[in-house]
Specification:
3-stranded antiparallel sheet, 8 helices, 2 domains, 329 residues
Length: 329
């Protein structure tokens, strides 16, 4: 992949008002006030020079074309900024660049006593798996369209359930007498089946999402959170209202017009989901006609969201393929 960003100060990709330094391979911990004049690197990262050949621990094989092994002792694992235990002090390596013990980057700076936050380059073993992403995308794109239709059917099933609850609310809340049971009508059964199909499609989409987020991360695109947390955020209450949207944008280079596809998809998806509580409100306040109107609107939004999601999958996968092939993005 061609280098697309030179070392220097840039707006903080993590969303703060400051600027963060990029060393040519990774984002550092150093920030400065936005608008500061000058492009000099911060002193903390100006001193340790990045080696031209990767440094590896003794006994670890070096792939062809990746430099030579060092004779330094293997780095001692511990938390960044935390001194090693007394038992491990004898094995401490000299100050310098060593393989990152957490595998988050290719190299991490050891100052002689602690692991620092200075890293260089993505993990050597974490290259983009564009073939895996393309394979998943091939199945996800048609599945999303099927999922959109299934969610649309589920909307009408939910509308009938909402109307039934509104009509039997008093009976459901009384303390005596038999409790009414919801009939298994064709619409309700189809709606429940549509919901199950939507869950299956959602799992397949999340598999692609994780692979795409991993590829973006391995390609050096700045991301606000790692692939695992980005994928898991879809099921975290409250945070799932905007974290997945941010994480999807992070899969696309800054300035890419394809980022507008992500916004379109997310607005449609949230709007379609908001129609579900609106159906219950309409059933309680207005009646069956209003409930069905809301259901029709929700169904249309779900289908539109599925089409928009398919466009996002296609654009993200094609972008990662171009980046991997070394083409301009």
């Amino acid at each position: 992949m061609n280098q697309t960003r030179a070392a220097g100060w840039y707006p903080d990709p993590w969303g703060t008002a400051a600027e963060r330094y990029f060393d040519g391979g990774a984002w550092s911990r150093q920030t400065r006030p936005a608008g500061t004049v000058g492009d000099d690197p911060p002193p903390a990262i100006a001193q340790p020079a990045v080696p031209t050949s990767p440094v590896v621990a003794p006994g670890v094989g070096v792939p062809a074309g990746h430099g030579v092994a060092t004779t330094d002792p293997a780095p001692v694992a511990g938390r960044p900024g935390e001194a090693p235990s007394a038992d491990a002090q004898a094995d401490m390596p000299p100050p310098g660049w060593h393989p990152d013990p957490w595998g988050l980057a290719a190299l991490r700076w050891w100052d002689g006593a602690n692991w620092s936050g200075h890293v260089s380059g993505p993990p050597a073993s974490a290259g983009p798996d564009i073939v895996g992403e393309q394979t998943l995308a091939r199945y996800v794109k048609p599945a999303l369209l099927l999922g959109g239709l299934a969610q649309a059917a589920a909307m009408f099933g939910t509308a009938e359930q909402a109307q039934w609850f509104a009509e039997h609310w008093d009976e459901l809340n009384r303390t005596t007498g038999p409790v009414p049971r919801m009939p298994a009508t064709t619409t309700i059964v189809l709606g429940q089946f549509g919901g199950l199909v939507g869950i299956v499609v959602g799992v397949l989409f999340l598999l692609w999402f994780y692979r795409a987020a991993s590829n973006g991360w391995a390609s050096g695109l700045p991301a606000r959170r790692g692939p695992g947390l980005a994928t898991f955020s879809f099921i975290i209450p409250i945070l799932n209202l905007w974290w997945p949207y941010q994480s999807t944008k992070d899969m696309i280079p800054i300035g890419d017009p394809g980022r507008s596809l992500v916004l379109r998809w997310w607005v449609l998806w949230l709007s379609g989901g908001a129609s579900i509580p609106l159906m219950f409100l309409a059933a309680a306040v207005s009646g069956e006609t209003a409930t069905r109107v809301v259901a029709a609107m929700g169904a249309a939004l779900m289908i539109a969201a599925a089409v928009a999601a398919r466009a996002v999958v296609e654009h993200v996968t094609e972008t990662h393929a171009r980046m991997t092939a070394g083409q301009a993005v």
